[in-house]
Specification:
CATH class of one domain: Mainly Alpha
Helix content: 40-55%
Strand order of the largest sheet: 5-4-6-7-8
Structural class: alpha/beta
Order of helices and strands: HEEEEHHEHEHHHHHEHHHHHEHHHHHH
CATH topology of one domain: Serine Threonine Protein Phosphatase 5, Tetratricopeptide repeat
Radius of gyration: 29 Å
Shape: globular
Distance between the termini: 79 Å
Mean pLDDT: 86
Largest sheet: 5 strands, parallel
Number of strands: 8
CATH superfamily of one domain: Tetratricopeptide repeat domain
Low-confidence stretches: 240-248
Number of helices: 20
Strand content: 5-15%
């Protein structure tokens, strides 16, 4: 019995070993087949343009910012990679001229030229200024800004830039630091080992070929402008507005502190990369619409008990009534009673700022608008601390520093930066773009870069904005459409209607404006139906009774 049992055990072990061997052989053959297929595709040059789509949305270093290309005349250049999906690709000479001076601008949509194309971003006006002021140099100002990017995704961009002999890197960024962790949690929170494995897979020709198959591939062709009204109900979308606190929707104090540390680390790393490559860096403070764009998330920083909350609500309501009667002096008394209970509510501070503005107390109003922005629970823009971080890093690392935010403030009536220089909450208009470009050029000239100030000419080729609008009437339409979309995302319906009506007044058949108007009408009707149903159900005998 024992001998038979041992033989059975041996037999089972042999069969198990054979099965394992077959599995191992299958894996080896499978890997070998894939390897041979990959090798054949590479030798044949199939799917060599795998950089046309970036599955990592800019978080991976495997997709370059710029790729080799040729102009129609055969000149070799580097051009913005198609994977970046920018509407106006930039290019620069593959071989830098001996008299070349190369500037790269890095940032987000505010630096990329939104709501215009890159030809109307401050980088374009800077190119015009430097070309005229430095006739002895071949100036290339390359816009490497990508809408939606935070500084985390700008790091790989700068790593690519340092391979192209940058003389100066201009950084204008900071508005998207709270958006990326929520939009891209599946990438930001991925295990680094898994992320590297995915990068290796995505770098293969087989992967690139698979993305072209129907039903599997990714459509990367530009689509007509479209607005998705479903995003209005997503509390995690970038400009979400919630009057009540939603658990997990607002950044916590810890997340805000981490965002600042992360921002500082990324800025410092970019500076070190460029300086290590022999280039200079200019850190530029970021401006935003403080006076004419209400905070996105108005909520109490800490919960109030029932009695204090009722007293706070009563004081604010009284202030609102008096402000509506144009009695701002007494309205301020009521608002300040509310502030004594809780001054961390961004909406209250914005109301106080508005009354101070009407009373022409400009300095106090400016301080309150800034406080309202910094207390915004769903940040519509960047905390003012980010600009201080830029100032500190510039001093510590010895970079150039330009306070563009101060320039815009000085140019606004009474220092209240608002709709006079911004299309919406963070996107500068043409006038502000020209002013930012001028501030950067002035900073370069003062620092003697690339030549002493005495060798600069005084030519100013940048046309007045009135001339730009007259020559390109569509610029106004672009501004209004972007403003309408931002107002809808911020659930500011009156603001959206005004912008849409302005577009249709000059362009009655504008497809996007008509879509926005129709969507607002459907949404309004659905809201009214919902309110009517709720009222009916609440009546005695109704479904809700």
């Amino acid at each position: 019995m024992r001998t038979g049992s041992l033989e059975q055990q041996r037999s089972r072990a042999v069969r198990a070993g054979q099965r394992l061997a077959l599995v191992a052989l299958g894996l080896v053959l499978g890997v070998a087949t894939v390897g041979v297929a990959e090798l054949v595709l590479r030798i044949a040059g199939v799917a060599s343009d795998r950089g046309r789509y970036d599955p990592f949305a800019g978080f991976s270093r495997s997709v370059p910012m710029f790729e080799p290309a040729q102009r129609a005349d055969g000149t070799s250049v580097f051009r913005t990679a198609r994977a970046r999906r920018v509407r106006s690709p930039q290019e620069f000479l593959a071989v830098k001229p001996a008299d070349g001076f190369r500037v790269f601008v890095v940032g987000e949509s505010s630096a990329a030229g939104v709501p215009y194309d890159v030809g109307h971003a401050f980088s374009a006006f800077l190119q015009q200024r430097l070309t005229a002021a430095l006739p002895q140099r071949h100036v290339e100002v390359v816009n490497a800004a990508v809408p939606g990017y935070g500084t985390r995704r700008m790091l790989p961009v700068v790593e690519d830039i340092v391979q192209h002999e940058p003389d100066l890197l201009v950084l204008y960024a900071g508005h998207n630091e709270f958006a990326e962790p929520r939009y891209y949690a599946h990438l930001v929170g991925m295990d680094p080992r898994l992320f590297r494995a995915w990068e290796a897979l995505a770098s293969t020709r087989l992967y690139a070929l698979a993305t072209r198959l129907p039903g599997i591939g990714v459509d990367i062709e530009p689509k007509p402008p479209h607005f998705d009204f479903e995003t209005l109900d997503n509390p995690l979308q970038m400009f979400a507005v919630r009057t009540q606190h939603l658990e997990g929707a607002y950044p916590t104090d810890r997340e805000r502190a981490w965002a600042e540390q992360h921002y500082r680390f990324n800025v410092e790393t970019m500076v070190d990369l460029v300086q290590g490559a022999g280039g200079r860096v200019m850190l530029v403070t970021i401006g935003q619409n403080l006076a004419d764009w209400a905070p996105g998330g108005a909520a109490h920083g800490t919960p109030l008990d029932a009695a204090r909350l009722a007293a706070w609500d009563d004081a604010v309501a009284e202030g609102d009534r008096r402000a509506a009667d144009d009695a701002c002096a007494s309205a301020l008394d009521a608002y300040r009673r509310a502030a004594a209970i809780d001054a961390t509510h961004a909406g209250l501070r914005y109301k106080i700022a508005g009354c101070l503005r009407r009373l022409e107390h400009w300095d106090e109003a400016r301080a309150e608008y800034l406080a309202a922005s910094d207390l915004d629970r769903m940040p519509h823009g960047a905390p003012s601390r980010f600009n201080e971080v830029l100032r500190e890093v510039a001093a510590e690392r010895g970079t150039l520093f330009v306070d563009a935010a101060a320039v815009l403030q000085q140019a606004s009536p009474h220092g209240l930066v608002g709709d006079d220089q911004f299309i919406d909450l963070v996107h500068p208009n043409l006038l502000a773009n020209e002013r930012i470009a001028a501030a950067i050029a002035d900073g370069m000239r003062a620092a003697g870069i690339p030549v002493p100030a005495a060798q600069w000419t005084d030519d100013d080729p940048v046309p007045p904005v009135e001339m730009l609008y007259a020559g390109e009437p569509g610029l106004r339409t672009q501004e209004r459409l972007v403003r309408a979309s931002a107002c809808l995302l911020a659930q500011r319906d009156d603001c959206a209607r005004q912008a849409i009506d302005a577009v249709l007044a000059s362009d009655p058949k504008n497809a996007l404006a008509l879509e926005l108007r129709s969507g607002m009408a459907r949404r309004g009707a659905a809201k009214r139906d919902g309110e009517a149903t709720a009222t009916r159900d609440a009546r005695p005998g109704g479904e809700g009774s």
